[in-house]
Amino acid sequence: MKKVFAVFFLMIMIACAKVSVETTKPIKVDINLRVDIYQHVQKDVDSIMDEIYSDQQSRLNSIFVLPCVYAADFSSQVNEAIQGIKSRLSKMENYFASGYIGENKDGALEVVADVPDSVSDELLTDLKKENADREVLYRATADKNGASLSDVRKIFFEKHYEKAADGSFFEAYDQATDAYIWKKK
Fold first, then answer.
1. Is residue 167 part of a domain?
2. Residue 130 domain-assigned (yes or no)
3. Residue 139, Cβ density class (10 Å: 0-12 exposed, 13-18 middle, ≥19 buried)
4. Is this prediction's pTM over 0.90?
5. What's the CA gap between 73 and 139, in Å, rounded?
6. Which domain holds residue 133?
């Protein structure tokens, strides 16, 4: 029994030995970590776009007959921007259909064709308001999600492209010329 105990004691001592791992130089560890916030940005963009493009009937809660509340943690300034965009929506669609305006790569609207004098002043005023409201949405979404403004603009651009009618102008990258050019959807 003493031999078994001695062997057991020896095994425990050997198994519990302290091992020291030291280097003369620090160990360099390269870790690439990317937190994907785009799913949150995408969700907010979808909510905003639904609010802009949906009609009142589809936004009603059928059980309680209450308007749908999207992204409740956005400010009143964002709500005002959404209402401004909604109020100009049919005008913007007409300007797009007429070929007067297009959306640039940053999600802002620009004049892309000659505009008749009878429409010019109103169109420029509407574009200025539209771009100001869009900027409010872009900045608020970026701030809320800790995302870069350029990433948010890109996501909104993609959503606007999806919603736009065929024939609308959008600024797109052209590999052949290595530049951004206006193209019809």
1. yes
2. yes
3. middle
4. no
5. 14
6. 38-184
